[in-house]
């Protein structure tokens, strides 16, 4: 798996784009979606079919921003943001996505995303990583949840979270607003029909948190969440016409 990840980061996989550059194949397009040139980043990460698999991964991985660039450029921020256990899951998942692509290309057999996800969990269990470190993994996450910091005096803080039911295409949203003393001012739980895109789901949840503050007449408030991709996109304020960009 380490060797595979190294090959992917060095753009050494036999994608259609790489083979097209060497004049081995006629078309550089992805053999699965047939819509975009098949770079390593597209094959393993940004292709909608690949994202179906990633949407079933751990919550923190689901919340990673679908950024552009080479696979190495996508991978590098993960080294700082994710735990060693989650990085192992990244490697195993990327390899599973690539193996499904090869199965379709050479055997015309396409494994459903749920089947690929089960294979990934099985491999993680076989490695002894998932079960042996599950308790440690929970202990790592708990401080992150409980370390709430109060906003400045006369400000409010809105925290939100989102969860996707991929099978039913439903987004669950939770919002809680507290004042500078830590008292709960308002909370909200709701569900809406939505395409199962984790990053889009986080963006919609952020929008709902903002609109709830507006409905309550709160003009001085801070938005806080652990989805770094959404937070950075909001801070940058760049114009974007993709679905997530329109929401942000």
UniProtKB/TrEMBL annotation:
Residues 159-238 form the RNase H type-1 domain. Gene3D superfamilies: Ribonuclease H-like superfamily/Ribonuclease H. GO terms for molecular function: nucleic acid binding; RNA-DNA hybrid ribonuclease activity. Residues 2-54 form the Reverse transcriptase zinc-binding domain. CDD domains: RNase_H_like (cd06222). InterPro entries: RNase_H-like_dom_plant, RNase_H-like_EbsB-rel, RNaseH-like_sf, RNaseH_domain, RNaseH_sf, RVT-Znf. Pfam families: RVT_3, zf-RVT. This is Reverse transcriptase zinc-binding domain-containing protein. It comes from Juglans regia. The lineage of its organism: Eukaryota, Viridiplantae, Streptophyta, Embryophyta, Tracheophyta.
